[in-house]
Amino acid sequence: MDPGREKNRAMLLTPASAGAIAVVRLLGAGVGEFLRAHFSAAPLPGRCVHGKLRDGMREIDDPVVVFLPDGSGADISLHGGSWVVQSVLELAARAGFQIISTAAQAEALDFLDGSTCIDREIHVALGAARTELGIRLLSAQARAWEQFIASSPSSDDIREVLSDESLVHLLNPPAVAVIGAANVGKSTLANQLFAQERSITADVAGTTRDWVGEIANIDGLPVMLIDTPGQRQTADEIEQAAIAQSRSMVERASLILLVLDATRPLEPEQSPLVEAHPNAMRVINKCDRPWAWDCDAHSGIRTVATTGVGVDLLRRAVAAHFRCADLDLARPRWWTQRQRKLLESAMSEASEVKQIL
Fold first, then answer.
1. DSSP H or E run through 26
2. pTM of the predicted model over 0.85
3. Could you read off the pLDDT of 71-101 as tens digits, one per residue?
4. Are 18 and 10 in contact (CB under 8 A)?
5. Longest dimension (CA), the chain
6. 262-296: per-residue pLDDT in tens?
7. DSSP of 71-87, one letter per residue?
8. Of 286, 280, 319, 318, which is closest to residue 186 (Cα–Cα)?
9. Helix/strand/coil (H/E/C) assignment for every residue in 195-238
């Protein structure tokens, strides 16, 4: 017997939030004893059994319990209130079960259905996929890895897969900060990227008084899009505090979109931002109006945020920055630390790549 199966462990399989149903899976030799002590009915192999789950004299819930086909444990299907779930996990912990609290733990794979490690890792990751592209790419990975391994990949092939973090980005939205001087059209542009209004806009400097962050779908890539207050000198203490706070968000961002106003001179407010953020992706906004500086002499994506002109090009550029544009679903990609470490090992010993399955 696998020694890991003798451990008594418990894990919440469904998302950690209130819902109609929550499923707690118990694994280990002590599952039968736990159910005999706390469940009013006798679970039968291959059948869903309804009964009362009690902690002493207190009734926690009336769940449905079913044994797993291989006899390694049981699923308890509860009403999905957070109090009910927490009470069951606490009861299991007091009964000697180790609580696997996150799908990131290596032991979490033991709880999931699937014939291979990659199947179970796909199962875990599907809950983190926020876009159709992420789901489609994940769903193709089992087949993609089978074909890749069967092709006897070279070290160059393995290095190329190792360098591709596109699926990591699809499952862990990178932060993208929109910055610029006051009233250059940052919030209007952010609303276009959100595809709906999220930030209040007006032709008045200082309208955005705090950073606004939310997930935006950029051509299938989810990003935490952060709209920041305009960078300027101001006597308004509230605006000063908002600008200072937004700087820490910008420093942690994976990509900065620097919005420049084509209708205003670069000096004195815009040039310092260009110098301070040399690696930023530049967006030259308001290009439909007379220019106050030579926009042709500066690289950048030209937009008219009020009408959406150029926004599609910007979306594509952001997705391409994270290697998430024109993705080939048939190519294998890594998204877990287990996979990454095996790929690193396979650089010197190619047979290691087989362990990914």
1. strand 21-27
2. no
3. 889 999 999 888 999 999 999 999 999 998 7
4. no
5. 80
6. 999 999 999 999 999 999 999 999 999 999 999 99
7. SSEEEEEEE--HHHHHH
8. 286
9. CCCCCCCCCCCCCCCCCEEEEEEECCEEEEEEECCCCCCCCCHH
